[in-house]
Amino acid sequence: MSSPMKVIAVGAGGHLGPHIVSAFDADPDCEISILSRHSSKSTFPSHIPVHRVSDNYDETELVEILTGQDAIICTIATEAIHQQKPLINAAVKAGVKHFVPSEFGHDTRNDQAAELFPQFYAAKREIVEYLKSKEGDGLKWTAFVTGPFFDIAVSNFLGFDMERRHATILDHGTNCWSATTRSTIGLAVKNAILSLERTSNKYLFIESFNVSQRDILTSLEDVTGAKWDVTYHDAEEEKRAALEKLAKGNYSGIPALMRYITCVEGYGGDYMNSEESANKLLSLPAESLDEVLAGLTRHE
């Protein structure tokens, strides 16, 4: 019997991390542990080992912690993306075989979106390029394009207020785009790590749903049994207003810009039109839009 794959998760206390930890924890072929900064207030399941490291990611400490690990899964927040470089350097020195960067979300290779939102895109692209430069040192990587985290993005920035039953629709709301639930992302990462011969040194494109805002509105009206109020916004006007806010240092424009990048053609939200889906490769389940949205409305 082969020994379990030893995986360490970084950023396990965020929006996505717990779902990834849970997927690995449920598989007997994996042995999951967590890397956390000393200052972190995050709490984790008591049965999972937690390795604490200095806030400055001291390399000597990191190498000691990472030695013996097969893979690192990183889900640290966008504003801390640069902290992955010392992790990557330590991973090479520790002999770690695989690194999954905190790339989850939109396709950061889309130049039009990167021009609008450089603070979200440039740093992530830079990390993948840095990983490519380490392939010769024996460190492989896999980056995931998932679209928005569907179960939190619907009411966060995609335009649906569950409590008020109000929808904000861009233009006609008929453009389709991809999004993935966090539990499915967790499963995808775990299955990819257990199939490294087929998933290394590439971007993997996954989705739970390929939908439009109109599709979501129709489903929400079905599962709530109610007609929703709808406000239609001109997409270009919404983009202009959001960029104006950001130019003044007002970050309240970010949700509207995220909605624009997701829902408007040409900004990478519809990546399955040009990329091969990894859903089958990673044995991902078919999901029901109605069931997921019904669950979200119950939790509001």
The strand order across the widest sheet is: 3-2-1-4-5-6-10
| Strand proportion | 15-25%
Per DSSP E runs of 2 or more residues, the count of β-strands stands at: 12
Question: Rg from C-alpha positions?
Answer: 20 Å
Mean pLDDT: 95
How large is the count of helical segments? 12
Low-confidence stretches: none
Rounded to the nearest angstrom, the distance between the terminal CA atoms is: 46 Å
Largest sheet: 7 strands, parallel
Oligomer: single chain
Approximate helicity band: 25-40%
Mass-distribution shape: globular
Give the SSE order as H and E letters.
EHEEHEHEHHEHEEEHHEEHEHHH
Coarse structural class: alpha/beta
Domain NmrA-like: 6-228
InterPro entries: NAD(P)-bd_dom_sf, NmrA-like, NmrA/Isoflavone_reductase-like, PCBER-like
Keywords: NADP, Oxidoreductase
GO molecular function, one term: oxidoreductase activity
Characterise this structure.
One of its GO terms (molecular function) is oxidoreductase activity. This protein has 300 residues and is an alpha/beta fold. The longest helix has 16 residues.
